[in-house]
Amino acid sequence: MEERHNHEKVLNKEGLRNKKEFVNHKILDLAGDFLLSGYNILGKVSCVKGGHQLSNLFLKELLDKNKENFDIIELEDVSLKELPQKNYNTRLVANG
Predict the structure, then answer these.
(1) Among this protein's residues, is 7 annotated catalytic?
(2) Four-point Cα dihedral 71, 72, 76, 77, nearest 10
(3) What is the pLDDT of residues 1-51, one digit of tens each?
(4) Residue 17 domain-assigned?
C-alpha cells in the first residue's frame, strides 16, 4: 500500500464536516484574501485551483497595473443601486 502524506488525507478524526468542505475552505480563503486588500471589492470572480499565492498575484495585477479596469468609490450615504454600472470589456484571467 502506498504511503500517504499529511496533505493528502483528512486530519479531523470525525472526517469532513460536509461534502463541500474543501470548496468552502477555498471560497473563504479567497474572500479573506480580497478583504485583506483593504478594499470592499464589488464584482464577480471565477477561480479554478486557486490559493493564497494566486489571489495575491491577481490582486497585485488588478490593483497595481490595471487602474483603468476599476473605479474606487467612497460610499457614505449612497445606495449600491445608485452607482453607475460599467461594462468592462477587459477580462483579467489567472490560472493556478
Answers:
(1) no
(2) 0
(3) 455 556 778 888 888 888 898 888 899 999 999 988 888 777 778 888 889
(4) yes
Name the grid cell of 13: 478524526
Q: 5, 7, 25, 52: which one is catalytic? A: 52
CA gap 30, 8 in Å, rounded: 21
| Of 35, 32, 39, residue with least CA distance to 64 | 39
Q: How many domains does the chain have?
A: 1
pTM for the complete prediction?
Answer: 0.61
Domain range for 65: 12-82
Q: Which residue has the cell 484571467?
A: 93
